[in-house]
Nicotinate phosphoribosyltransferase 2 (Nicotiana tabacum), 560 residues
Amino acid sequence: MAETIANGRPDQFANNIDGPTNPMVTPILTDLYQFTMAYAYWKAGKHNERAVFDLYFRRNPFGGEYTIFAGLEECIKFIANFKFTEDEIAFIRSSLPPSCEDGFFEYLRELDCSDIEIYAVTEGSVVFPKVPLMRIEGPIAVVQLLETPFVNLINYASLVTTNAARHRFVAGRSKILLEFGLRRAQGPDGGISASKYCYMGGFDATSNVAAGKLFGIPLRGTHSHAFVSSFLSPDEIIEKSLQHRDGSIVCEDFVSLAQTWLNKLKWSHLLGGIFSETNQSELAAFTSYALAFPGNFLALVDTYDVMRSGIPNFCAVALALNDLGYKAVGIRLDSGDLAYQSCEARKFFRAIEKEFGLPGFGKMNITASNDLNEETLDALNKQGHEVDAFGIGTHLVTCYAQAALGVVFKLVEINNQPRIKLSEDVSKVSIPCKKRCYRLYGKEGYALVDIMTGENEPQPKVGERILCRHPFSESKRAYVVPQRVEELLKCFWSGNSDKTREDLPPLKEIRERCIEQLDKMRPDHMRRLNPTPYKVSVSAKLYDFIHFLWLNEAPVGELQ
């Protein structure tokens, strides 16, 4: 038995795997009925019967035709450290009827996940409905205790990663995407998880400092409107000196230097008439911020008036910094017509580059925020804009367009006997038995179809024709000659067995996999409007078995 630490949990229980990121993820983060079922299994002597469950989802989110699988690492961390504390056992005892026998609580006291095996799709992969994301094997009572936390850990993670990937697809590869959602997220855990999984889904950085520390995600952020409006005039700036970037000289009055440049801009041949008097308190705020961060000066320019004040003030400070060897980063727009303002700002920057002979000034970075979402990004693309980076928050991290993915956890086999869950709604009928899952690729390198087979069926072979059937529709079938075959489910937790398990890749590697996977999808599956559904199929043998079991389990009605 592993050594325990103060809270009674195993100390990096298996192969030095740390516990879940969120310390609230413990064995009692589950629904009460998991414990009532566990007791009933134990009472009936069924608790050690070998069961197989599939974790999957039924429908792609956001009206799209793909999903990104995320959350696996947290599930493995959870089971690697799965152990009830004495306090938790006492609470479970108080929550169950007093008739529950002491032996059950002794059983819980010794429980861990050493008899569990987990086979899963690699995190960061593109996945589709009905295909198992995870297959969990082990004693039925233990596996049922994993159901709620697993569904919880996979549901939001996969949903928000998919949301991030969709935003990346609309924005395009060349744009910088910044996750700014912490303040609007559903609590601290929602904020931390969102930052991690948005980065996985293709975002470049986050404003969330805690997530940066935990996961090594690049951080981005400058200042708010409050910083700008907190200044009343340049007279407030006491320390006005700034040393040249190379250390050669010191400018004793950087405030005056910025003001001099503002006057030059005001009387500029190319810029004449765009502005007259700018807001001096805003100029003071920008100057003060530049003195604090001369090498990272990015200003929020819409506190008062973007074109008549914010951009001229920014440019004056940026040009003063340029005199001292520093290069300003750019501006942020947080309100108004982002397409128009970004285009006008770009013209302003280019005019300065031309008039004052400053190569690169016209390419100054423009960041836009302000309640952005997929639709806004798409509209900006159609209108034409000059935005280089987008800061996206509320709609991204809250998954405003869809609240949940709808992950389910279904028993498909017990004691080597396949089981099926029936429903009048065909989409809710489960696919029975322990399965192997493959992705078949075509000549152009794109994924063509996912196929599920029985565990003991031969693997599809490159160049050999295979019949792929829709699980429930008799007429939907097609032959496929794969040019490449990829097995999807790999062992990520082997318990006490001697099976080799996959290592958990670092976050950056998962992010790269996500980007590569999306590149392998046909463009018509990816498009926002009327995407082509991706085909998910079963082998002919599994199709026949599903329908045999369906007829065998469904009661036969009788007409009177």
Remarks:
- The first strand starts at residue 50 and ends at 57.
- Residues 1-8, 10-14 have pLDDT under 50 and may be disordered.
